[in-house]
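# step 3/5: fold
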Amino acid sequence: MELAILDFQQLRIKHIAYKSKVRSVLYGGSYENGYFQNSNPVALWFIETGNLKYRHEPRFEKLKKLHQQFSKLSEELVAIYQNDLIEQAHNGLVDLNALSDLFLQELAAAEQVYIR
């Protein structure tokens, strides 16, 4: 049970770090191919940990879908930024933050199963 809580905390940290990296890129930070696309830290968590341990959990698929939406929007915003549509990319952060909030809420709900 404690291991599950640590796994979910790790997922939360990876998500926040990924979100921070996206924001950094949209404000002029360096874009690293290896950090984006299917090799972002959250996607790797789903491959290496989530799919192995938690795929049968009721909220797992929703978490996975929310991350995929978050990742897709992140890539779109980076592409918009790279096309010099900086203000439009920054405006997209509102939607990205909303997806992040949903992801973190769903993650908190999934954790509750293991805290009891």
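# step 4/5: annotate
The chain has one domain: 2-115.
# step 5/5: archive (pending)
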